[in-house]
Design goal:
By secondary structure, the chain is of the alpha/beta class. It has helices at about 5-10, 15-25, 25-35, 40-55, 60-70, 80-85, 90-105, 115-130, 145-150, 175-190, 205-220, 240-250, 265-275, 295, 310-325; strands at about 75-80, 110-115, 135-140, 155-160, 170-175, 195-200, 230-235, 255-260, 285, 305, 330-335, 335-340. It has a six-stranded parallel beta sheet with strand order 2-1-3-4-5-11, sandwiched between helices.
């Protein structure tokens, strides 16, 4: 019985030697390009990259990890209950942006959901065992041991939003939450509204704290005064926005505007106001935060504060890759933008 001619002539995948021969450089030069391009001239790097494209060479990540001690992958860690990942559109937008930014560097992204204490312990063990080179941390609450534990273990880490209590010890990228809240409350005041309620985010998160601070600052500057009856807290979910609006209506029936710290919560607020027979914006103006898909899916469409999600994700990836490469922690704060629609 003879072997199939197809099997005998099957083309072998290109190797690093093929790339070196095609580029006209040494195997060591190709290896240095594949491992970050250190001590390689721009001309040699371009020649190697062109040879990789022509030959179709694919890096053997397992072999390289044995040499470099790196996994060549990054974790996207969400420390929230799993249902929040599917409900809140911001997480999906951020995940997509980070995946695209890492793809430009040929680095895969691993999604990790850790909403309970047990899940966080298991994920922390997995990360500190070296299965990923660094972590993009999303939704870190005060008292959450994950960020501190990873930092102490020396794992490169970038948080989305400033982690409370860790200061400059952890890299982070954040929208300017306080300034965005200030812009929204100024806008509501400019419409002649004076009894402005607020549904805050969780007050153990940086966004929750900063957006409430911006609300209070502008009311104080305008001489309107701060009424605690007009302040209720939520957890960024639709149901908490609905419950928050009901509490505000019971406490302050003369409320003529409400600033809601997320678009998803604002959807719940709109539901409660409609049930109570309140017209938006005629009776009560509503302003959200995020400019997520929830803002345009609402009726009426939400006036909101736009977070620059594309820039947030690309900056998180840039800062993390720099830290993996040996650079010090860094902080990046990005501007927000008021987007006017029909609700205010």
């Amino acid at each position: 019985m003879t072997m199939s001619s197809n099997a005998g002539s099957r083309r072998k995948p290109p190797t690093i030697h093929d790339v070196a021969r095609e580029a006209g450089v040494s195997r060591g030069t190709v290896s240095r390009v594949l491992n970050g391009g250190h001590y390689v001239s721009p001309a040699a790097q371009e020649a190697v990259n062109a040879a990789i494209r022509r030959t179709g060479y694919v890096v053997n990540r397992h072999a390289r990890s044995l040499i470099t001690g790196r996994s060549d992958s990054v974790g996207f860690l969400l420390t929230e209950p799993q249902e929040r990942f599917f409900e809140d559109p911001n997480f999906n937008v951020l995940l997509r942006g980070c995946t695209q930014a890492l793809a430009a560097h040929d680095v895969p992204l691993l999604l990790m959901l850790a909403g309970t204490e047990d899940e966080r312990r298991r994920i922390a063990r997995y990360i500190t065992a070296g299965h990923v080179d660094g972590v993009l941390l999303v939704s870190s609450h005060s008292g959450d041991p994950v960020a501190e534990g990873l930092r102490e273990a020396g794992v490169p880490l970038v948080a989305c939003g400033k982690p409370i209590g860790l200061g400059s010890k952890v890299s982070y990228v954040a929208a300017d939450d306080r300034d965005g809240a200030r812009d929204m409350v100024r806008h509501l005041l400019s419409l002649g509204r004076r009894r402005i309620g607020v549904v805050t985010g969780p007050l153990d998160t940086p966004g929750g704290v900063e957006r409430l601070a911006g609300y209070k600052e502008v009311l104080g500057e305008a001489g309107v005064g701060i009424d605690d009856e007009l302040i209720v807290s939520g957890d960024y979910s639709r149901v908490s926005g609905e419950a928050g609006a009901e509490r505000l209506l019971a406490r302050a029936p003369d409320m003529d505007a409400v600033f809601v710290a997320s678009d998803l919560m604002a959807q719940g607020v709109l539901t409660a106001l409609q049930r109570a027979g309140k017209r938006v914006p005629d009776d009560i103006a509503v302003g959200g935060f995020d400019d997520s898909p929830a803002a345009t899916a609402s009726t009426p469409a939400l006036t909101t504060i736009r977070q620059p999600w594309d820039r947030i994700s690309s900056e998180m990836v840039r800062v993390l890759l720099a830290q993996i490469g040996g650079e010090d922690p860094a902080a990046v704060i990005l501007p927000t933008e008021l987007v006017r629609r029909d609700s205010a």
